[in-house]
Design goal:
elongated; 6 helices; Pseudouridine synthase; 3 domains; 17% helix; alpha+beta; 320 residues; 34% strand; Archaeosine Trna-guanine Transglycosylase, Chain: A, domain 4; 6-stranded mixed sheet
Length: 320
């Protein structure tokens, strides 16, 4: 069985589940999952965890994400992207480019966003997109999102934008941000119906376009680029423990500082959205005396001097 992480270049027209199904078939194992879905019409980085790495998905779901998106002016759609039915159209307008840029920059920081009906969120056990297909609209509560950066990619040759013209922009944002909803909301702010006409996810935490494999390459050689499991949580500090300590942790017991051989700083910045909401503090990557990754532990500072480490999400022993 393959245990590790893949960064896939998802093509438009496929669901994230379609990609997972293909990889499962190619590597010959069922334990494959993704760290965050990508809309069927969008392309870009999709991070998959294989084998024991699926146990690490909860520590990777809050990664900050980056996108390149295209905003089209003049009409809105029921899906907020180019694949939907036109809801409203406006042809007679001239939009000053400078005013649009000011609105983009004003969106940086914390915001509230109402998720779209065409999404995988659940309402009373049903996916919103399932309800939308039946013509139903239900109330959605706004959610907290954070936009770390947003900026136009290039300047237009004119100072105004007309019907059907587009603006390409880059955005770095928290988990749960719907870029197509952001495009729709920008249209509301400028009083011009608008929609998202293109979306490319360029980064998921530490995984960027420079790390991806195409589906064509994977079909020929499914394991040609599998990253080590611990690279997915390299934002956590690390600790190397004795073989006795490793055995104790794998058996569910706490260990003391005397079992610690070395404490290592995080290898990368956190890449976490909104502080990694819901992820407990004190988590550590744990390695045994032979520098083999054995799972996630938690340092307990509250237990007095010399502190202790308790097992938090240890890998099965056969993963050693």
């Amino acid at each position: 069985m393959v245990h590790g992480i893949m960064a896939i270049l998802k093509p438009p027209g496929m669901t994230s589940h379609d990609v997972v199904a293909k990889v499962r078939r190619w590597v010959g194992q069922k334990r494959v999952g993704h760290t965050g879905t990508l809309d069927p019409g969008a392309a870009g980085v999709l991070v998959l965890c294989l084998g024991h790495a699926t146990r690490l998905i909860p520590f990777m779901e809050d990664y900050v994400k980056a996108y390149r998106a295209e905003l089209c002016f003049g009409w809105s759609t029921d899906t907020q992207d180019a694949g939907g039915r036109v809801l409203e159209e406006k042809r007679d307008f001239l939009l000053p480019l400078g005013a649009l840029h000011d609105i983009l920059y004003s969106l940086k920081g914390d915001n509230q966003q109402v998720p779209p009906m065409v999404s995988a969120l659940k309402y009373k056990g049903k996916r919103l997109y399932e309800l939308a297909r039946k013509g139903k609209v239900v109330k959605r509560e706004p959610r907290h999102i954070r936009i770390y950066d947003i900026k136009p990619v290039k300047q237009s040759n004119t100072n105004t934008l007309k019907h059907g013209e587009r603006l390409l922009f880059d955005i770095t944002c928290s988990k749960g941000t719907y870029v197509r909803t952001l495009c729709h909301d920008i249209g509301t702010l400028i009083e011009i119906p608008s929609h998202m006409s293109f979306l490319l996810r360029t980064r998921v935490g530490p995984w960027g376009l420079e790390h991806v494999s195409t589906l064509e390459a994977l079909e020929d050689n499914p394991t040609h680029q599998v990253f080590a499991m611990e690279q997915g949580i390299a934002h956590l500090p690390g600790v190397s423990v004795t073989q006795e300590g490793a055995l104790m942790l794998s058996q569910g017991a706490q260990i003391s500082k005397r079992h610690v051989q070395e404490v290592m700083p995080p290898e990368i910045e956190a890449f976490y959205a909104i502080g990694g909401a819901g992820i407990p503090e004190g988590l550590l990557r744990v390695f045994d005396g032979d520098n083999r990754f054995i799972g996630v532990g938690r340092r307990l500072d509250a237990l007095g001097p010399g502190w202790k480490i308790q097992p938090f999400r240890m890998l099965p022993q056969e993963a050693k």
